[in-house]
Amino acid sequence: MEHLYKVVSVEQWEASKDSVVLGQVDSEFIHLSKGDQLERITTKFWRGVERYVVLTIDPDKLPGKLVLEANREGGDKYYHLYNGAIPKEAVLHVESREI
Fold first, then answer.
1. CB contact set of 58 (below 8 Å; sequence gap of 6+)
2. pLDDT tens, 12-70?
């Protein structure tokens, strides 16, 4: 499987620096993006945010149930991680972005 991506605030990333697992970033499940969805996600949800962090993730190292599903009927399919977390060992690359 290809790499997945998670966008988090600088504050969320900084708060988890000393932890083995990235702190809770979403409710119900963790939203993840494929490479071809990343720019759409950052444009839609992170527009106007001066700085944010993009994590490149190895999906094979994610505990929990990873499901590819549409957010709404007929919409694009995104990976959602249920009953899991993002361990630091799953993070392959950290990129800080600024507007």
1. 3, 90, 91, 92
2. 999 988 898 887 778 889 999 999 999 999 999 999 999 999 999 999 999 999 999 99
Q: What are the C-alpha distances in Å from 78 to residues 7, 47, 58, 67, 68? A: 14, 20, 15, 8, 5
Q: 16-25, 59-68, 76-85, 89-98: lowest mean pLDDT where?
A: 16-25
Q: What is the 3-state secondary structure (H, E, C) of 16-83?
A: CCCCCEECCCCCCCEEEECHHHHHHHHHHHCCCCCEEEEEEECHHHCCCEEEEEECCCCCCEEEEEEC
Q: What domains can you pick out in the chain, each with its CATH number? A: 4-98 (3.20.170.20)
**Token reading at 55:** 């994590």
